[in-house]
Specification:
The protein is built from eight helices and no strands. It has about 190 residues and is an all-alpha fold. Helix 1 packs parallel to helix 7, helix 2 crosses helix 5 and helix 5 runs parallel beside helix 8. The chain is elongated and about 60 Å long.
Length: about 190
């Protein structure tokens, strides 16, 4: 959720006012990888039931490449928007949100990859395994936010959010790697 904004506003409404527009832009853009996820998931499930292992691996690679490309384009788009268009379009009052948006821009890559990994996790019926990384990351994010706000303010919240999304992405990737290793050991 937006617990980071709520915690930040407890410390400083001014800092929350700087952070909220930047995180809002990032959250709004999640609709794009989510749309790809929602479109591809039924297709992948249907195909997975009728494919051999090599075709399943090829589909997995294509999914990850698609979500990587989408995430990279979104990350680049956010960075370019923040660097060159945010202030001219929205005004000088957004100048301080600009740096926060630049910090947050890699989240688009991490989140997009997470959607791709999540699609593969669902196809392989491993949804329950997603709960542990989600719980760990949620707790870690809250702890980091509380620890970083006094010294870094909104920038600390942005860095905590960035790290949390990276760790969640890595957690999903680890689930898939472990599943692959288990499948190989069972087959061999």
């Amino acid at each position: 959720g937006n617990a980071d904004v709520a915690v930040l506003s407890f410390y400083s409404t001014a800092q929350a006012g700087l952070y909220s527009p930047a995180s809002g832009v990032i959250h709004a853009l999640f609709i794009l990888p989510n749309a790809f996820y929602n479109y591809l998931l039924p297709v992948l499930v249907k195909r997975d039931n009728h494919q051999d292992q090599s075709a399943k691996r090829a589909d997995s690679v294509k999914v990850i490449l698609l979500f990587t490309a989408l995430g990279f384009l979104l990350m680049l788009g956010v960075a370019v928007f923040a660097a060159f268009m945010l202030v001219p379009l929205l005004g000088a009052s957004y100048q301080q949100s600009r740096g926060l948006l630049l910090i947050l821009s890699p989240i688009m890559l991490f989140k997009s990859l997470s959607f791709g990994f999540a699609a593969l996790i669902v196809v392989k019926s491993l949804q329950a395994k997603r709960l542990l990384p989600q719980l760990i990351v949620a707790v870690l994010d809250l702890v980091l936010v509380v620890l970083l706000i006094p010294s870094l303010g909104a920038k600390g919240v942005a860095w905590a959010y960035l790290l949390s999304e990276l760790l969640l992405c890595l957690g999903y990737w680890i689930i898939l790697i472990r599943h692959r290793k288990e499948a190989v050991s069972e087959a061999g």
